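not sure who needs this but someone in the group chat was asking about Crotonobetainyl-CoA:carnitine CoA-transferase CaiB-like acyl-CoA transferase from Roseospira goensis so here u go. i didnt clean anything up, its just raw.
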Amino acid sequence: METASPAAPRPLDGIRILDAASFIAGPFTTAILGEFGAEIIKVEQPGTGDPFRRFGTATERGDSLAFLSEARNKRSVTLDLRKPAGARLFKALAAKSHVVCENFRPGTMERWGLGWDDLSALNPALVMLRVSGYGQDGPYADRPGFARIAHAVGGLTHLAGMPDGPPVTPGSTSLGDYMSGLFGAVGVLMALRHAERTGEGQVVDIALYESVFRVLDEIAPRYARDGTVRGREGAGTLNACPHGHFVCQDGAWVAIACTSDKMFARLAEVMARPDLVRDYGTTAQRLAARETVDGLVEGWTRTMPRDRVVEVCTAGHVPCGPINTIADIFADPHFAARGNLVEVLAEGVGSLTLPNVLPRLSRTPGHIDHAGPALGADTDAVLEHVLGVAADERATLRADGVI
């Protein structure tokens, strides 16, 4: 397991991002960019902060483990944007920033005088990331949205579950948030590149449901072409066989993926059943006899413990992997060799083990400097050093509940 240490210069050094988003999608975008050098000023409501601080397992400090992980590398500033003095300070910070990130319902920032027109007038090169459930326009724009709703509306939930069962949560309930955060990071980087060349800022508009819909392979062109409504496929897939999850002798599971006839021939060889190629050598033959083929494979995996199945398949160049629990991941030598887990200090909590930085860059790698900050930990420093707000004025702002 790696331990966080001082990093070399990073590609986004010098970029300042004003992060007024809450929960996961927008903050995940800024977390990624912060790992690669961007200064992230996280703006939170005085007294309560980001609700994500209370989502998940609480720590000794009160902030959740999820928050401490996803608010990594950020500076926390408390600012009540609903008050004129808070909005004024936000505008001043936006004028000195390269990016503003927000995920309120469309129109909220405008009601506070902090919409795109207001901020871009102060900073024409500003990039504004706006994350919402349904986007900034369209008939559903005003509806509240969370990842679970995005999974449903975007088409993913309908595909998750067993064929004869109800739709289920597709893995993490926050998957759509994290996907949207990734698309947000890509959008911000492209917009920054444009602003660097032209001096023109722009809005990056991310809808949670769109991020989900974008990754559902061929369901859109297939429906448009022949009217097929794809449904729940359980552990398999309509496009390949055997391509699913198989239980082993010790009760653990493996995933096996034979996406071509060549891969199936290799599996048949590994199973010491080369005769299977005669009857099931083509994808069409295997799909037509899916239950039989999957049953044959499971009958074989049940004869060995999981690790042996993985070993035999790997030796035969058959794609196979263990279905890991988090305990398996912590014990996996490949995760260790790749440095996928890193120890980071969190003020008031101690050492935490977090997922490490992605992507991996060979010359300018990202880095986790610290876990999520305490609420308002950087308010005075940011207001003083970025905006020049004197101590007596900060005292007044604090007394008025603005910070």
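also Residues 243-247+253-322 form a domain with the formyl-coa transferase, domain 3 fold (CATH 3.30.1540.10). if thats useful
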